[in-house]
Amino acid sequence: MDETTLQPIVYQLDEKRCIVAIDGPWDRFALDNDGAAACTERVIGQPLLRFVCGDDARMWIDTLLQLASLTGEPLERLYRCDSPELRRFMSMRVVAEDTGMIRVEHRLLAVQQRFRPVRFQPVMGSHPALRLRCSVCGRINHQDSWQEADQWSGDGDEVTIVVAYTVCPHCYEDRVSKPPVTSRE
């Protein structure tokens, strides 16, 4: 991990959930992960949920934003934001501000090397090799269990898996049942 990845990435959302400000190494993270389309100048003014894949994942994020707004309490959830070579364990903190804005802070907590690189190819609709991938924990549904993609995905140095994004039952239950985290400030 280099020191810039330890800086939090923070963005502000307005009442319509549009991204209005970004702080931290957002662009560097986007460019390091083949995400030139997600650089600051392309996302400012856009609805956050436009950049979230999968209806279940959009509902998960929207629920967290609504819960923070309604309760006025900060929320914190763990999730994964992997690259082909790394498992990245992250924390997302959602804070409703008195101005009606929402501040979302993402922190890198830990990194693990994958057994082998795994690339994900998102698709809409059906595909013969389609697997479900959890947008929260990063696992793949394989033979009715949620597993790390690099542990079952066949032979070879690198694997590409066709995925549709969802939220697995474990992460969905965590979203529903986990109480808000009290403020660390």
Task: Please characterize this protein's 3D structure.
The protein has 185 residues and is of the alpha+beta class. Helices cover 24% and strands 34% of the residues. It contains 6 helices and 10 strands. It has helices spanning 3-6, 26-32, 40-43, 55-71, 149-152, 169-177; strands spanning 9-13, 19-23, 75-80, 86-96, 102-113, 118-122, 131-134, 140-142, 145-147, 159-166. It has a 5-stranded antiparallel β-sheet. The chain has a 3-stranded parallel β-sheet with strand order 6-10-7. A hairpin with a 2-residue loop joins β8 (140-142) and β9. The two termini are 26 Å apart.
Mean pLDDT, as a whole number? 84
Largest sheet: 5 strands, antiparallel
Radius of gyration: 17 Å
Ranges where pLDDT stays below 50 over 5 or more residues in a row are 179-185
How far is it from the N-terminal to the C-terminal residue, by CA? 26 Å
Write the layout of secondary structure elements.
Blueprint lengths: L2 H4 L2 E5 L5 E5 L2 H7 L7 H4 L11 H17 L3 E6 L5 E11 L5 E12 L4 E5 L8 E4 L5 E3 L2 E3 L1 H4 L6 E8 L2 H9 L8
Keywords:
alpha+beta, three-stranded parallel β-sheet, 6 helices, 34% strand
Give a summary of the structure in a few sentences.
With 185 residues, the chain is an alpha+beta fold. Helix content is 24%, strand content 34%. Strands 2-1-5-4-3 form a five-stranded antiparallel beta sheet. A three-stranded parallel beta sheet has the order 6-10-7. A two-stranded antiparallel sheet has the order 8-9.
